[in-house]
UniProtKB/TrEMBL annotation:
Subcellular location: Cytoplasm
Domain of life: Bacteria
Family: Belongs to the class-III pyridoxal-phosphate-dependent aminotransferase family. HemL subfamily.
Any one GO molecular-function label of the UniProt entry: pyridoxal phosphate binding
Alphabetic keyword roster: Aminotransferase, Cytoplasm, Isomerase, Porphyrin biosynthesis, Pyridoxal phosphate, Transferase
Name this protein carries in UniProt: Glutamate-1-semialdehyde 2,1-aminomutase
A GO biological process held by the record: protoporphyrinogen IX biosynthetic process
Catalytic activity: (S)-4-amino-5-oxopentanoate = 5-aminolevulinate
PROSITE patterns, alphabetized: AA_TRANSFER_CLASS_3
Record pathway: Porphyrin-containing compound metabolism; protoporphyrin-IX biosynthesis; 5-aminolevulinate from L-glutamyl-tRNA(Glu): step 2/2
A GO CC annotation given for this chain: cytoplasm
């Protein structure tokens, strides 16, 4: 089992990328997988995941902190989840009917998220956000949406206005192909600043259907809300007659068993879920109190459908994952490893004379190459992209796999060990020194 070095072969990945370029747009099926923002070239083509590690087509092992962009929390191929999928798959992959498993996962989510009385599953977080916006418009009879600069909520038309993450990585302002009328109904504001929201709601509140927010931002790094910010946001939105949508696709079950909204003592009107609740399988969900969900067909006039919604394999994997997350001490361990990794990165950068900001919450980490605080998207934008690209390459060569973007979060999983973290910090110390 080899570890990548500066001279390690990547011939297999390069050949696969060459073939992919001829048959897939840009050679990838999601732009966030491209290495365009970190110097280009062939991304590593992974063939296997096991615990905290990924293995590429050239046989190299990497300590993985991409973790499926946050969908993985138990590690790759955890036995309990894999066994659940094995158990269900032989009975049929798709029925197009209700199944007992979806009822069980419905019940679990409603039980642990107090703001949610009823749930609807989709096949992705993008679909769930898209439908949550439609539901808010149906409930309020209003059309405008308030969102926040740099926050990514999937790739449906309205939320691609001033979106972050993959958009910012590729230097794209707004997606082509969005009609002007869609953009006119979206207002994007700076996160963590309540005054711009107050002004917009004062002037246009009668037209605003919903305020859509990641309660803890996970798409321009990891940025928690300033004290009192979310509370003021909810209060101001409700005073204007708008619903509050919390996008918890990344945050739910990431920092504790349930939604992160509970940490702040808040109850949004609609909650969007995804990633972890599928245990590594495709999934999305949205939920709300009964009077809002009663508008969803077949009970009400707001339509949402999906052949893959409530897919049996996703339900089985999700239930197994959520059951595994009940393990005593699991979240405390993620917090401990996250703190060690974050502080170790700060120390290593300091010794190398490289200015950085490191944010950490639970097992989630964000590293910014800047000496300035990062409280919003503009702060992330000002961080040094070129230094990140060089750091990314240096870490990859030393066997540490990160997202190829300065806007993404590092995710520690339950499969990472203290030894993995220490090896990562040794690689980071070398990588920081190489930036001179």
């Amino acid at each position: 089992m080899s570890h990548p070095t500066r001279s390690a072969s990547t011939a297999a990945s390069e050949d696969l990328f060459r073939r992919a370029l001829a048959v897939a747009s840009g050679g990838v099926h999601s732009p966030s997988r491209s290495y365009a923002a970190v110097g280009g070239g062939a991304p590593r083509f992974m063939v296997r995941g096991e615990g905290a590690y990924l293995f590429d087509a050239d046989g190299h092992r990497y300590i993985d902190y991409l973790s499926g962009y946050g969908a993985i929390i138990l590690g790759h191929a955890p036995e309990r989840v894999v066994e659940a999928v094995r158990r269900v798959a032989p009975d049929g992959l798709l029925f197009g009917t209700p199944t007992p498993l979806e009822v069980e996962l419905d019940e679990r989510l409603c039980q642990v998220i107090p703001s949610v009385d009823r749930v609807r599953f989709t096949a992705s977080g993008t679909e769930a956000v898209m439908t949550a916006i439609r539901l808010a418009r149906a409930f309020t009879g209003k059309t405008k949406l308030v969102k926040f600069d740099g926050s990514y909520h999937g790739h449906s038309d309205p939320v691609l206005v001033s979106a972050g993450s993959g958009f910012s990585t590729l230097g794209i302002a707004d997606s082509a192909g969005i009609p002007p009328g869609v953009m006119e109904d979206v207002i994007s504001l700076p996160y963590n600043q309540i005054e711009p929201l107050e002004e917009v709601l004062f002037r246009q509140g009668a037209q605003v259907a919903a305020v859509l927010v990641e309660p803890v931002v996970g798409n321009f790094g990891l940025v928690p809300p300033k004290p009192g910010y979310l509370e003021a946001l909810v209060e101001q939105a409700h005073a204007a007659g708008a619903l509050v949508i919390f996008d918890e696709v990344i945050t739910a079950f990431r920092f504790g068993y349930g939604a992160v909204q509970d940490r702040f003592g808040l109850r949004p009107d609609i909650t969007v879920l995804g990633k972890i609740i599928g245990g590594g399988m495709p999934i999305g969900a949205y939920g709300a109190r009964a009077e809002i969900m009663d508008l969803v067909a077949p009970l009400g006039p707001m339509y949402q459908d999906g052949t893959w919604a409530g897919h049996p394999l996703s339900m089985a994997a999700g239930l197994a994952c959520l059951e595994a997350l009940r393990e005593e001490g699991l979240y405390a361990r993620l917090e401990r490893l996250g703190r060690r990794l974050a502080q170790g990165l700060r120390d290593a950068a300091g010794r190398a004379g490289v200015p950085v900001q490191v944010h950490q919450m639970g097992g989630a980490i964000a590293l910014y190459f800047t000496g300035e605080p990062v409280d919003d998207f503009a702060g992330c934008e000002r961080s040094d992209s070129e230094r990140f690209a060089r750091f990314f390459r240096a870490m990859l060569q030393r066997g540490v796999h990160l997202a190829p973007s300065k806007y993404e979060v590092w995710f520690v999983t339950a499969a990472h060990t203290e030894a993995d973290v220490e090896q990562t910090l040794e690689a980071a110390a070398e990588a920081f020194r190489s930036l001179d």
